[in-house]
Specification:
Shape: elongated
Order of helices and strands: HHHHHEEHHHHH
Oligomer: single chain
Number of domains: 1
Distance between the termini: 81 Å
CATH class: Mainly Alpha
Strand content: under 5%
CATH topology: Tetracycline Repressor, domain 2
Length: about 220
């Protein structure tokens, strides 16, 4: 991709992350990128085309962070996933201000307004869910977590919990919901599968009888 086009997308995406797609005017994008209107239309057919490129920009960033952690063979799959969420949470905080996840914001704003953007966001959602499901399966193969968990349903649960936590963080301006998300998901719901030995009642009776007989 042309470096000038990349620069327009990068600078425009920062405004959209803060203000939303519909509340970001073309004049603001032009001013931030320091380009004339003609240059914008040289690279993009219209604002929707630009919006699709912005979605791809955010998607690529998520995949970059996810790949960095998911391929770490020294940690367990669930630790890798937790580390992804920790780093991505830092990434979406701009100047210590929390404006939410840009893709989640766009999903809320544009899904009922623009079908092309909705479909692109949905495609990413499904791909991301599939990758989380794969990590859950890997963790089960390593006996890190309970095998009774359905990987696809578990992935949906994680994404839903993550989305809800980000909404509350944005609303309350507090990280508390994110901390609860990490604790509940990785310390309770997906905790290591602990096998508790079962002692038969007959065995207990035998041990008790042996004690009284001095055996």
């Amino acid at each position: 991709m042309n470096s000038a086009k990349k620069d327009i997308i990068k600078k425009g995406s920062s405004i959209i992350h803060y203000k939303g797609f519909n509340h970001t005017g073309l004049s603001e994008i032009l001013s931030c990128a320091r380009i004339p209107k003609g240059s914008f239309y040289f690279y993009f057919k219209n604002k929707e085309d630009f919006g699709l490129e912005v979605i791809k920009y955010f998607q690529d960033k998520i995949y970059e962070i996810f790949k960095k952690h998911s391929t770490n063979m020294y940690n367990s799959p669930m630790d890798n996933l937790k580390n992804f969420f920790l780093e991505y949470f830092k990434y979406i905080q701009v100047d210590k201000q929390f404006n939410g996840c840009p893709l989640q914001n766009l999903s809320h704003e544009m899904s009922s307004l623009n079908e092309n953007m909705r479909l692109m966001l949905l495609s990413f959602h499904n791909q991301f869910k599939s990758q989380i499901s794969s990590l859950i399966k890997e963790a089960q193969l390593r006996s890190n977590i309970n095998n009774m968990i359905n990987p696809d349903e578990g992935a949906s649960f994680i994404i839903s919990s993550w989305s809800g936590a980000l909404t509350e963080v944005k609303l309350t301006k507090s990280h508390k919901a994110f901390e609860i998300f990490l604790k509940q998901v990785f310390e309770y719901y997906f905790k290591p599968d602990i096998v508790i030995p079962i002692v038969k009642i007959e065995d207990k009776k035998k041990k008790k009888m042996s004690f009284f007989l001095g055996k």
